[in-house]
């Protein structure tokens, strides 16, 4: 039995969005074998009440994050740090980390999201694994190219400073993790060094299973579905592009086709799309599986995408045919079980082709589920974590209460 300090920019409960899902399964894997001490931010105080928290963590400190992005930007500009790092700088978290390291015989530290690496001790420290997931700094470079003059300067600054910070963290970590070989290679291409490893995302195929009974949703056929956090800029851009430029081409061929944007916190730009013919904006739903089960086709039209897209794996696990942009498909070893298209015309043609050929759509969806079952089970994806943390010989410890 080892003792692990787990630092996270967002507590992994409930596992209902991309960053939480990976963190949740990592914590669950580690907690089945070791004592996990969680120090993390929460977006809302109520998130601290999730039952899995006390069931899985030997101890926990959760701090509600109240710092606004404008305040973080001011602090970043004043201190010469990246906004991403300044946004997660908090004295309460620093005290909690220091307390755990002082009071517990910590064998290893797992850092989830590079902004949390600012809390690592500067002197001798336990074995440290840094889970970058993907190369966030490059994403800001992509934002810069699409922004106006002021935004371009800020995003370019963030790309430069966050990239330098991440490279420094990786150089000092015992291992740095990325969700795909493509992300790992991208990090190397911007000068990242150290022990760079790939630990892919997985999918809970027992939960995301089309035969499991879920509440039906009121949706007409044929239905095209996108799922995601709808205040996240790449998701907003994706559904805007699809609704404005792709859906009209599809509806020219299939006039009854509808598009559902499923996800919490839709911003005004997304809500406005719900006024368009054939477009539904659901807001937060209790269970996305009902919408995926009802979907004729699931789409991932992301123009900016990093790492492995959980939304794609979930749709594949639900045996839905998926059409994705190259960026959204990159990193997923799909073996041809999803359709990849880039331009408006190609994307519309791929979706329309599946809508007009239900037999092919069903066949592709079944192949997609079989692929994720064979390739993306969480237990297989996380099997090497204990060795990376230096805990392979620590034995197993199963919490009983």
From TrEMBL:
Gene3D superfamilies reported in the protein's UniProt record: Glycogen Phosphorylase B (3.40.50.2000)
InterPro entries (alphabetical): Sugar_tfrase_PEP-CTERM_Stp1 (IPR017521)
SUPFAM superfamilies, A to Z: UDP-Glycosyltransferase/glycogen phosphorylase
Keywords: Transferase
CDD domains: GT4_PimA-like
MF (Gene Ontology): glycosyltransferase activity
Protein name listed in UniProt: Sugar transferase, PEP-CTERM/EpsH1 system associated
Organism ancestry: Bacteria, Pseudomonadati, Pseudomonadota, Alphaproteobacteria, Sphingomonadales
